[in-house]
Amino acid sequence: MSEPYKVLDNPELGRYAVSAKDLKAGDVILEEIPFAIGPKVNSSPLCLECCCPVDGSANGPKCSDCGWPMCEECNEDKDNVVYHKKECALFVKSKAKFQNVEDSTASCMQLDCITPLRMLLAKEDHPERWDAELSVMEYHNDARKDGTTWHQDQQNIVGYLRGPCGLKDRFSEEVIQQVIGILDINAFEVRTSKGYSARGLYPKLGVMAHSCVPNVVHSIHPSDGYRLIGRVAIDIPEGEKLYTVYTYTLNGTSTRQAALKSSKYFTCRCPRCLDPTELGTHFSSLKCQKCDNGLIVSSNPLDDEAEWRCSNCEFKTRGAAVQKAIQVMQAEIDQLSCLENGPEKLTAFEKLYKKYRSILHPLHFIKTSIRHSLIELYGRVPGYEMPELPDILLERKVELCRDILWVLNIFEPGKTRSRAMILYELHAPIVMLAQSQYRQGVLDGNPLKEKLSEAALMLQECSSILEWEDPYSPEGILANVAKQSMEQLRESIKMIS
């Protein structure tokens, strides 16, 4: 069987992958286990086996062997410890002690060394894989040296590993900084089996180029050694470049660019980033306050200082002023997000949505963020649970879902996890609204069948995408729920005369 992709090397573009044959949406193109799994940078105290948050004070749970953070459950099951095992033996041998912290909610810099250490130990255990996959990975140390992070890493990681951990004769400063750089540039976020956040290094996936409109998706299975499976989300012809994404697609261009520059050290020049309208969505556009139909867009989306201009009149404003306004709006959203889920939170988000109606384009990423929050609240909080929602609020949830789905069809097209989750949210209000209208005599049998069939197709697509996820993850569990709901719905459709 021919390989689904091949890796090319270009002096300007570096290493990247292209399809080696015509690929159909959903085709598997790669599978791999991580070279290393461990805590993310700036993590608060967490268990070094399962990554659950722990108390990092003197009274907090510690590994009975080395004294570094470990939850009680993992400590009691030491025979099955996998990820902490080798570093534990090293800490015991070198007598490197964990320094207790006073604030367990703050970042714990001591833990920044854990994932690089695991990579170094894996380099010794698997030199062939290192030589074949890791040694050729980009790590941009020249760019990193210009920032304060390099010097912090030199002290907190390089100095610590070569000093108190006794690795001076095993790993040079250059190799340790190379490992840190590879992790910074190439690591992907993973969720543990308990749902906690960590990072993993997947060299094959790291070969895929970045785009803010990816055509490659991946699922990670923590219950199977964090095995990663990569698939194409859409049909791809032979020779087409393969793209994954290193940032959140539902942020505006300025926010995505800032994240990529600070963490990946490059500027994205994909078609979406170069287009002031973000492929016609106006995902970052503002409404002009000086004329009726004008939209204010950046004259250069890659420059935060560039002028923003109205498409319909002579109005102009500074990029810094736009960024300041967005920061204020984002702060309001962040403040509401901290509230406990309840009717007050839902009402507050609806009020905020209306507040921005005259300022932002309807599909602006700030409004899209609010839509996501409202979708999660409608049907789940007291007084607004699905059986209680009147038709007007069912229609509201349908509208919110369809608006986000329209954006996702452009930014994350095809068989993507984000689309599957919205399809699941959308099916329920469509079903309930159709049933309500049938009871009122607004719909008769055939239109009712059409509405329910539409919802069944959504559930079918949802379950077919989410079945790729770890079966023990929330998404994997939802795949089964969606499949059962689809089967029940189709039985109900058969009974309609």
From TrEMBL:
InterPro entries membership: SET_dom, SET_dom_sf, SET_SmydA-8
GO MF terms, alphabetically ordered: N-methyltransferase activity; protein methyltransferase activity; S-adenosylmethionine-dependent methyltransferase activity
Name under which the protein is recorded: SET domain-containing protein
Originating organism: Aedes aegypti (Yellowfever mosquito)
